[in-house]
Design brief:
By secondary structure, the chain is an all-alpha fold. The protein is built from 27 helices and no strands. It holds the Pfam family mTERF.
Length: about 475
């Protein structure tokens, strides 16, 4: 009995140790699975992912993708490693069949990697040919795929939209432009698309005019008739513009339809409150009040694009109305030079709006070259800001920064010591001098025949007013013969 009681604990101890080991292992596995399920069973998926990574890398290289971009692309899109390489290859073939271009293939794959799903792409293989558009661009096809993938739309939705646009009379180029600029048109009902066309035709536009407007400004398809377009035309009418003027301006630049309600009113209010020279104001309104207000809107948008607020943009244009006379391309050139080359902040324009109103090539660049040279050579003690660069007059800037340093004259340009070629041959000025004639005796006798009393009267008259004149007359009378006025 004693021997049996001594042998049982060893067996129980072994069972307990095995049980504790198994429990520990299971707890560790379950704990690891609960914290990170992806790491629970990583041995098998890791090997398959590595094989897929190698296969996909070689596949993309064969289709012309840059090797330097493939690794980063696959790292940022781990979902592609779950696809079969054979399916990815079929998807790439379908994309090339739609548009055989390496640029198109790269842009579509990089912008929307999930498009390589063969189950999704197989449905689109023949749908683009059914749409009946021969000049589909790469961006239009890419936008259709992105919208369809994001909102889970099928090929039939895109086909319905394209057929609707073509049925309303829009040309193929207009349909392509709409899909490029506003691909969400795929999700719109046919009635909403028709309402826009009917509204524009009721105003007085012809069918061809509507097609041109939509082609040049395809984003207008996003505007609702009741919420945007009708209130906008009501504002034009309240401002006193006739429908003929509005139609002409819309045909001239369809982006007019993109103005917010009340924006043109604000722009015209600012123009009428300008305090500038009459010549500048006349040049601004020379193109008409409607167009002048729209030009203000475009320049406000340009300034806001660089970071200025709506109020600051209006302040800059009100303080410097000469900026309205410059093209937007020139304004962008000045601002890019201010930010990138001169290293100033865009908010400096609020303090020094004159920068946008001066000539870029004749004033901004030469002055900056002079200041930059003086700063690099250590000849300027204090830093010259934008105000000190633009505000001084031409002569004052020359006396401060150019005249003391002769080497700056060539940088300044205007005062370069260059020989000015004469427009006339040398010695030509001698031909324009009046001829000298010698006084004859007959001329002297004619002068002497003047009545002396008249000369004396002239002397008395000019004696008080012009002392020099009376002296000259007396000196001349003294030289006359005595019998000439006796």
């Amino acid at each position: 009995m004693a021997i049996r009681t001594l042998g049982r604990p060893k067996f129980l101890i072994q069972l307990n140790s095995i049980h504790n080991f198994n429990q520990e292992f299971l707890n560790r596995v379950f704990k690891q699975f609960s914290t990170d399920p992806k790491k629970a069973l990583t041995s098998i998926p890791r090997k398959s992912h590595e094989r897929n990574l190698i296969s996909l890398s070689g596949l993309f290289r064969r289709y012309g993708f840059q090797p330097s971009q493939i690794s980063n692309f696959l790292k940022s899109n781990q979902c592609l490693l779950n696809l079969k390489p054979s399916h990815v290859q079929k998807s790439l073939k379908i994309l090339l069949s739609l548009k055989p271009s390496q640029e198109f293939l790269s842009s579509v794959v990089y912008s929307c990697p999930s498009i390589l799903d063969f189950d999704f792409l197989e449905k689109w293989e023949t749908k683009f040919s059914d749409m009946g558009i021969s000049n589909f661009t790469s961006s239009a096809i890419r936008n259709i795929f992105e919208v369809s993938r994001r909102f889970e739309l099928g090929p039939d939705d895109a086909l319905r939209c394209v057929m609707c646009l073509k049925g309303l009379g829009f040309s193929e180029s207009t349909v392509v432009n709409v899909l490029e600029a506003f691909p969400l048109v795929i999700m719109m009902d046919e009635d909403r698309i028709r309402d826009k066309m009917v509204f524009l035709m009721d105003i007085g536009f012809e069918k061809d005019d509507v097609d041109r407007i939509i082609r040049l400004f395809p984003f207008s398809m996003a505007f609702e008739v009741g919420k945007k377009m009708k209130p906008l035309f009501d504002e034009f009418e309240d401002l006193g513009f006739s429908l003929d003027v509005v139609r002409w301006e819309v045909l001239r630049d369809p982006r007019v339809l993109g103005m917010e309600v009340g924006e043109l009113t604000q722009c015209l209010k600012m123009l009428r409150s300008l305090k500038c020279r009459t010549v500048i104001k006349e040049n601004i309104f020379r193109i008409g009040a409607f167009r002048a207000g729209y030009e203000v809107k475009m320049r406000v948008d340009c300034l806001r694009k660089y970071g200025l607020t709506y109020r600051d943009a209006f302040t800059v244009l009100w303080k410097e109305p000469r900026a309205l006379l410059y093209e937007i391309v020139h304004i962008e050139k000045k601002i890019d030079f201010l930010l990138q080359t001169m290293k100033f902040d865009v908010f400096c324009l609020v303090q020094v709006p004159e920068y946008l109103g001066v000539n870029f090539e004749k004033k901004v660049v030469p002055r900056y070259n002079v200041i930059e040279y003086l700063c690099s050579s250590g000849r300027l003690g204090d830093e010259v800001g934008l105000r000190g660069l633009i505000k001084p007059s031409r002569l004052r800037f020359y006396n401060l920064y150019v005249k003391p340093y002769p080497e700056c004259k060539k940088l300044y340009g205007r005062y370069a010591a260059a020989e000015v070629k004469s427009r006339h041959p040398a010695g030509m000025w001698k031909l324009f001098q009046p001829q000298k004639h010698s006084e004859s005796r007959e001329d002297v006798e004619n002068i002497s025949s003047v009545d002396g009393s008249m000369w004396e009267a002239l002397c008395l008259y000019h004696e008080d007013t012009s002392c020099h004149c009376s002296r000259a007359i007396k000196y001349y009378l003294a030289k006359l013969p005595e019998n000439s006025y006796s």
